[in-house]
Amino acid sequence: MSMATLKETLFKKIQEHRPRTTRLVKEFGDVKIGEVNISQAIGGARGVKCLVTDISYLDPMEGIRFRGKTIPETFDALPKVPGSEYPYVEGFWYMLMTGDVPTMEQTQEVVEDWKQRARVPQYVFDLLRALPRDSHPMTMFSAAIVSMQRESIFAQKYAEGMSKMDYWDPMFEDCSNLMARLPEIAAYIYRMKYKGDAPIAPDPNLDMGGNFAHMMGVAKPYDDVARMYFILHSDHESGNVSAHATHLVASALSDAYYSLSAGINGLAGPLHGLANQEVLGWTQDFMAKLGGKVPTEDELKKALWDTLNSGQVIPGYGHAVLRKTDPRYTSQMEFCEKHLPDYPLFKLVNMIYKVAPDVLMEHGKAKNPWPNVDAQSGVIQWYYGVTEYDFYTVLFGVGRALGVLANITWDRALGYAIERPKSVTTAMLEEAAGIKEKAASN
Ligand code: NMX
Ligand code: MLT
Fold first, then answer.
1. 436 domain residue, yes or no
2. Are 294 and 300 in contact (CB under 8 A)?
3. Is residue 377 part of a domain?
4. Are residues 132 and 245 both part of a single domain?
5. DSSP string, 210-249
6. So, what pathway does this thing act in (predicted)?
7. For the chain, which ranges sit under pLDDT 70?
8. Whose CA is nearest to atom 46 of ligand 1?
9. 227-253 tens-digit pLDDT
10. Is 374 a catalytic residue?
11. What's the whole-model pTM score?
12. Could you tell me the residue range of the domain that residue 306 belongs to?
């Protein structure tokens, strides 16, 4: 008997899962899972449980689990690219989609499938070339994604008339096509913008991570850096801005191109993904002020306080959910300890890790004084020669696409509703707080 494809396995999983969701809604729809208070309504819905995903879960103390697996468990379980330390991104996609760890054969099926889907339409390159060259790379990335909307199989099938039960199928097709094309688009932006407008053609013999490194023009072990980076940045449950924005837009039955572009726009904010470029910017400015010499802990402390006292955040520190060091930070730190232990920038980042949490605790505002994923990622890129730090969020975006696209495929499979939370007025909150008489009209 021939092996089931990823799509066939996914369909089986979807059929098994649907009754669970239906039962919860039908029989237990009234069961309460939380309450909402005024500070949550004003403060970004922090901690409000109103999203459902099975792709990943974020525990405040332990950090992320992808399909129930911690980061080290994920790296251990998945099939590795021969001669590499890190797994195939394609196998990770299989795991995010189905919840199963694929065999090497199942992984190879996705590798081959993505190769068939990888051709980027010429008009995407034409569009990128038409944009001002000083556009931010995230603007270019988002524009390239939304420009491909005309390719959407979901939009086409929807226009023709399609049963709700079938929505997941063209959504999966669109998401797979996007995943197969994003690496070339990202690398093209990089080479066009920063490397003398000299794009490198894809190599059809390579896996996704290997091909990305090849198209970036960066030698080994950057292929492994790419695999590690994309997997680490893939998913952080559903409430973060990029995942939530993607899900929100998809909930209107907008296709994967519109939805991912929206998510990428959210990732481009400095409090979200852009923080990784801000970390490098902050660190480089600080080094420049010191004339390049290695700082003392006191000098570093002063620079951190100067940032806080000028009303700015310390990029790469703090988190809306996490209350410990982000395991994605730790995973990258372990990579650095192995591959670049004596690199001065790595040493400086470690020194910040030693000093910043105490400074943030003394400052007394941030609920989490520990580093997040963005505090460490730029060092690795810099070490391998990718020093153009305004490009870093595009790398985050390629990785994030894995998680958010797996999520919206399942959104369609489980028939999740159009998202529409309720808003209230300030006067209504004042009434609820008992500090204002009920007005005839709010
Ligand atoms: N530096 C200075 N102040 C901070 C920091 C920080 N790193 N983190 C939080 N605060 C402040 C925050 O601005 C807020 O101040 P105010 O009361 O004046 O509005 C206060 O502490 C309470 O915020 P929290 O509840 O701890 O954090 P929140 O959940 O609102 O925000 C972040 C989470 C991640 C947006 C926030 O910690 C931050 O701005 N960090 C720096 C930017 C960053 O690293 N972002 C990347 C997040 C990961 N990612 O890749 O997306
Ligand atoms: C993320 O990876 O999305 C960030 O850590 C932000 C978050 O989870 O809120």
1. no
2. no
3. yes
4. yes
5. HHHHHHHT--TTHHHHHHHHHHHTS---S-SHHHHHHHHH
6. Carbohydrate metabolism; tricarboxylic acid cycle; isocitrate from oxaloacetate: step 1/2
7. 1, 438-442
8. 272
9. 999 999 999 999 999 999 999 999 999
10. yes
11. 0.97
12. 274-384
